[in-house]
Amino acid sequence: MADTGQHNITVKLVTNGKVITILNEDIPELYFVEDIFSVFIAGKLTFFDKYNALELLSFTGHEYIYVIYGEEEEKQFMFSIYNVANITPMTMTEETSFSVVELYFAELDYLPFTQNRHSKSWLNTKISTIIKDIYKGSVNTVREFLTFEETNEKINFCMPYWTPSESIRWLMCRASGAETKTAGYLFFSNSKGLNLTTIEKLFRNQTLEKDGKNILYYRFGATDGLYSNKILGWSIGGIDKQSLLGLQGGKKYGYDWATKSLLTKEYTYEDQISKFTMFGKKTLFTNISNSDIKLDMEGDSNEILLRNIAQSEFIKRYAKQLSVKITVRGHERRYAGMMANIIWQSTTPDQIIDKAMDGKYLVATIVHQFSGSMQPTYKQMITLIKNAYTSSDFKYLHDATIVDKEIKGEKLLK
Questions:
Q1: Beta-bridge partner residues of 2
Q2: In this predicted structure, what is the pLDDT of residue 358?
Q3: At 96, is the secondary structure helix, strand, or coil?
Q4: What's the pTM value of the predicted model, to 2 decimals?
Q5: Is the pLDDT of residue 189 over 50?
C-alpha cells in the first residue's frame, strides 16, 4: 500500500447542540497521547478560528471535541475540553483577521477520576474487583474492559476520601496477577479500550505474527512502497543511573498487628529480574544486587503485599531503562501495549543486524500527531521499551532467566 502523505481527519467542536467542523488546513497542530503508564488519553488542539467558535461556543468548560480518522478502519474519539490555554489574535490582511486557539483535552472521565473524592469500604474482596467497583462508581461513562486480569489477593480496604486515581494506584502496587503470578499492574486506556493488566502479561504477548507484519515490523531503510513500517526518525534513551538505587535491591518493612512483630521483605536485583519474561538473553545490567541499599517503611501488615510492592516498583522502573523513540507515518491500528519488532541494522560492516538491539519491543507510548501543514499529515511518535539485549558478547551482563520463547528458540528475523 503506497503512501500519498495525506490522511484526512475530521475534527468537530460541540456544545449545546452547536457543531463546528474544523477543516484540516486550519489545524496546525493536533496531538493526543496514549501511554501504558497513564490512565487516560489526553492531548492538545491548535486551530485557526475562522468559524467564530469563540462567539458560538463561548468555552465555558462543557465543550467536546470529536476526532475521527483512519484509512483501513475508522477510529472515533470524544474528548472533553478542560483547559483553554491560549487565544492569540492573528491579522492576515486589513480585512481578514482571526484568532489562534489552543485547547487541552482528555477523555470524558478524566476530571471525575482525578478530582472527585469518595469513601467506601470492601471486606475480604479481590483487589481487581475493588478496582472495577471504584472505576464504575466514579465515572460518568462506564466502558467495558478490553483486558482485565484478575488478581490473587483479597483484602479489606477502606477508601479514605481519596480520588479514584489515588485509590487505584495504591491498590495496584499491592496486587499480583492470577494468570502471570507476578506484580506490576497497569491501568490504562488505549485506542482499543480500557485495560487492567500486569506488565508481565504484555511481555508475554505472542500475537506479533497474527496482526500482520505491515505495522509490526519496522525498518530503517527502503520498504518497497509500504508506508507504515519505515522509520522516519529515531533516538535511543540512555540508561538512568539514578534509577540504579531502586533496582539494586532493598528491604520493605511492615508491622503485623496480630503478632505485634516487625515484618521484613528483602529483595535483590537478581531475585526480581528472574520473575519476568525478557526480550533477550542478557539483562540491561550486570548483577548489581544489594539488599541494604534501600530501606522503606511501607506499614503493611502482610508480607505478601510487601513483596508485591517491591516487585511492582522494580519492574516498572526497570522497564523504562532502555527505550527507543521512533517516528513513523500514522496508522490507526497501532496502540499502546502492543508488540513490535525492529529490524535493527548493525554499524559493523561484517554484521547484518545489531544483535543487541534487534528484535521485540513493547509499545509503551504513542503520540498521534496530525497537522494540515506537514507531510505526512498523520505521524506517530512511538516509544518502545526493551527489557533485555537480544544477544550480547559482553560477558559481564547478567543472564536472563525467563527468556521470550522466540529468543530462546533463535527464531529471530534476519
A1: none
A2: 85
A3: coil
A4: 0.90
A5: yes
